[in-house]
Write a structure and sequence with these properties.
With 189 residues, the protein is of the alpha+beta class. The strands form three sheets. It has a six-stranded antiparallel beta sheet with strand order 1-2-6-7-8-5, with helices on one face. The protein has a two-stranded antiparallel sheet with strand order 3-4. A two-stranded antiparallel sheet has the order 9-10. A hairpin with a 2-residue loop joins β3 and β4.
Amino acid sequence: MATSSGILKDQINLKKSSSHVYTISYHRDWTVGPVLHGGCIAAAIHHTATTHLATEPALLARDQPDLLTLHLEFLRACEARDSTITITELKIGAQTSTLQLVLPQNGQTKVIALATSINLDRSGPSASTAWKLRPPPRPVPDFDAILNHKPEPNWLPGHLVGEIIPLTRRQIGLNSRDGFPIDGICGEP
């Protein structure tokens, strides 16, 4: 079974045009009326940034494959058509680097993004504390079981009935089997 991320990457169809310019495709599933859904544009920009980090020699040498932050400004709605994304390396540093990604259409900047890269496998400063999450987080879902329509002990998958927008037919919502208990919020007299 194809995963949602695999389907999305196939639909993005990212291609490198030159050292700092990429092209992306779109799919009708991404549309909301005549424009592209912002979440799918964000996914395309994220995919472009991580690909650039993994393939551009100056950035590859810094070993910063992970995005720590990705800030997007949607200046105008994106049309449902293939687009280009241009990357400018604003700062290449020893621990972090900053990229600017711009998606123009018809001579207008539609989306501008700033991405900060880092290597999350490197350890940094830390301090012991008594802090704990309360309630403790739920276990990570068994996504293979969920995608193969098998029972998952801690999570209940749910699908939207009908089609809100085309991409919702692939979305699965996960709800905790025992609800979301937080002392003091519900059930007080």
